[in-house]
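tool_call: predict_structure(chain=1)
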Amino acid sequence: MTIEINGRAFSESPQPGQCLRTFLRELGHFGVKKGCDAGDCGACTVLLDGEPVHSCLIPAFRADGHAVTTIEGFAPEGDLHPMQQAFLDAQGFQCGFCTSGMILTCASLNQAQRQDLGASLKGNICRCTGYRSIEDALDGKSNVEDAGAGTAFGRSLPAPAGSRVVRGAERYTFDVALGGLLHIKMLRSPHPHAKIIAIDKSVALGVPGVHSVLTYEDVPDRLFSTARHEWDWMDPDDTRVLDNVVRFIGQKVAAVVAETEAAAEEGCRRLKVQYDILPDVIDPVAAIAPGAPVLHGDKTTEHRVANAARNIVAEIHGEFGDVAAALAQAAVSYEGHFTTQRVQHAALETHGGLAWVDADGILNVRSSTQVPFLTRRTLADLFDLPADKVRVFCERVGGGFGGKQEMFVEDILALAALKTGRPVKFELTREEQFIATSTRHPMQVTVKAGADWDGKLTALQLDVLSNTGAYGNHAGPVLFHSVGESLGVYICPNKKVDGVATYTNTVPSGAFRGYGLPQTLIAVEAAIDELAKQLGISPFEMRRRNIVKPDDPMRSPPESKYHDIQYGSYGLDQCLDLVERAMAADTPKTGLSADWLTGDGIALTMIDTVPPAGHFADCSIVLREDGGFELTVGTAEFGNGTSTVHRQIAASALATTVDRIFLRQSDTAHGGHDTGAYGSAGIFVAGNATQAAAEALADQLKQYAASLLGENPDACSLDNDATVCAGHRTPYALLAASAQSLGKTLSATGTSSGTPRSVAFNVQGFRVAVNKFTGELKILKSVQAADAGRVANPMQCRGQVEGGVAQALGAALYEEMVIDEGGRVTNAKFRDYHLASFADVPRTEVLFADTSDALGPMGAKSMSESPYNPVAAALGNAIADATGIRFTATPFKPDRLWPALHEKFG
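tool_result:
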C-alpha cells in the first residue's frame, strides 16, 4: 500500500479494519482529532485528493493511491494557509479541539457553498464558540488588538496558543507517542442494578496481547467520590474504583489491559460475569417513595448520605417569614411545576488519559481534567502514595463545561500503571461519554410566588427534586446552589425552600455549566413574568422593583453559614437597561405569515464569583535570564481563556508586553496548589494570585535596581524590558545576570483563597416567532448584557457569552438524553442527540455593563458559567409572550409545543 500524506509517500500498512483517522495518528499526525468515531463532529476532517472527508469513516486501506492532507501539511513549513491566518485573526476557536477539521472544511468551500454556511458546515461541530467567530474568519474579519507595554489588560489580545492551534500543533491529552504503551478497555454493566457474584477471567487472559484483567478484587477497599472539590465533605463517599455492586447500565465492571485496543476489546468480550439481579428504580419520584429499592443501603450519614433508606443523598429545607400566610394575602400569585431534562456536556475531547511510573518511582498521570491538583490528592489517598510520588498534569483540554471536574478515568489509569509497571492509555469512546460519565442534573421544580398591588414580591417558594443518578457526585452542592442565587437576587420578606437530591439507577449526574441555576431559573423567572402579567407591569419594571441593590442582603433559605459575599461591583441595573434598549430597537422584517406568533422574553441571573468554603490558587513568577518572565499557575486551559488573561494580568502589573510572559500551567510538578478551573474561578481566584505575584515581583525589580544604583526605589519605574531609576535604564536581562552572580533569583509568589467573593450578573433577552400550527420556533433576536466587572479581554469575554448562549439554547430547544424505562441511554451518539450546529445558533448581541469589581483581579470578575444560566428561562418567557401558553418542560421541541398550540389555535 502506498499513500501520500502531506506530500510524502508512506508505505506502512494499516491494521485490518483500521480507520484512516487512527492510522494517521499512529503516524504522528496529531492534528487529526477523535471526537465521535461516527462521522458526526468533523474533528477528524482531512482532505482526500483535495476534498474534505471525515477520516473516522474512511477505511485506511481506501487511501491507497490517494493524497491525504492533514492540518499539519496544509501550508508550507513555517507558513500559514490563508484560512489558518483567517482563523488566527478572527480567533475562531476557544478550546481549539474542532479547529483543525473546521479550517480544512472552510478552506474547501466554494463561493456557492459559502452562501449557505448552515448546510456547508453541518458536518463540523464546535461546542465552545457559538460559531460567530468562525463566521468572522470566513468573512475575513480581524478581532484582535495590539497592546503596548503595561496596557494588555482590557484589550482583545489573541490566545498565546493560537498559532499552534490553527497549525494543529497544540498538544491535547493523547497527542503524544509513548513507547511500550498498553491499552485499557472496560467491561460495563448491562444491568441497572445487580450484585456481581463471580467474574471468570480465564478465557480473557488467554486472548493474545492481554496482560491483565482488573476487577473489584484488585482495588483499594475505600470509598470516595468522583466529584472533585477542595473539601471532601462536600460530596458523599459512595463510590469505589471498581465495585461488586453495579447501580446503572454502563458502570465499570472490569478493566482489560492489553497490547492493543483490539485485544483489550476482545478480552472484554471473553469475560464471563455472573450477576444477581437486584430491584431497580429509574424514576426519581418513585425512588423516594416508601418501599422503593434502596441503592446505597450500606451508606450512612458518616458517608455524607442524608437518608440512604429513602435514596436521599442530600436535602435542604428552610424558610424566612411565613410563605403560606403571605401567599394567602397576596394581591396576585402564581404556582407552576417545571421539569428540565438530562443534558450531556459533549466536550469534543472525551475523558481519558495516560499513566506511567517513571524511573524515580513517581506515578505520572496525563489527563483531560479541570482539576489536576485535587485528582493527585485523591489518587495519593486511594493508593497510599506520598503526594510527591504522584504527578497529575494536563496539556490543553478539549472542552470541559464542568464534566472534567470529576475523576472518571484517572483511578483506573493509576491502578493499571501500578499493577503492570507499563505505560497505559485509557480513552473513552463517545458512547461511553454518554452512558458512563455524568450529565446535568434533571430537576423537577415547583415554584410559588406572590406580590402586592405595587408589584413588590411578598412570597417566593421553591420545591426541588433533583435526580443525581446512581452516585452522589456533586448532588448536594448542585442542589444547594440551585436554590441560592436564584432566590437571593430578589428582595422578598417571605421565602421558603425544600429540596431533595435522590439516587436512581441511571447514569450519574454531576457538575455542569451553571451548576443547578439554569434548572431553577426557568421556574423563578417564569413566576416573575406571570406576576407582572397579572399586574399589568412590564417584565423589566417588575424586576427593577424587586432585584437586590447594593447593600441589600442576598438571602435564600436556610441562612448560609458563609458570609463573605460582597457587591464587588454592581451592574444589574445597567444590564436591564441595556437589554431593554436593545430589544426596543427594530428587528429586520422577517416576512413571516399570519401563522407565526411573535413575542419577547427576558430573564436575569446572579452568580457568586467563587464557590463557597474556600477556593485556592498559588502562582509564581520569575525573571528569566533573557529578561522575560516565567509565570506558573495551576489552573487549566480548556477554552475558558485563562492562559490569555493570566499573561495580560502579569504583563500589565509588570508594565511589559504579553510576548515577554512565558506561561507554565496545570501541572502538579510545578509546585504550589490550585483547587481547579471550575466555578468560574480560573480568572477571579487564580487571576488574583497572578496579580499578587506580578505586583510583588514589580516591587522587587524596582528595589533591586535601586540598590544597584544607590537610588530610592520610589524613584524607579518599570518600562517594558527595563527598570528606569532616576533616568538610568537597566535592562531586565542585566538585572537577572547581576542577581545570578550573587546567587539570587528575582522571583515572587502570590496566592488567593477565594474570599471574599463577589457576584456577577447577566440579563438575556429573546424575540421569537412560533408557528401556531406546527410548533416550529424561530429566534428573531438574541441579546445578552453582562456585568463582568472590568472586562479583561472583550473579544474573549464576548466569545464566552456567545458560547454560553449557544450551549444553553441547545439544552432549551433540542438536547436531551433519553433514558428508557429500563435505565438505558438510547441516544448515546451525537447524531441522535442533536448538538447545536452552525445553522442552529442565532447571533447574539453582547453588551457589557460599565463596572469595575473591587475584589477581582484588576477589576474583573467571572464570566464563564453565568451566560448560560438565564437563556432557557428567557426563551420560555418569550414563547409564553408569543403564544399565551406557559410551557413548563424543556426542551421546547416543536412536537412538545404542538399539542397545546393545537388545542388553543386548532
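agent: The CA atoms of residues 532 and 542 lie 6 Å apart. Proceeding to next step.
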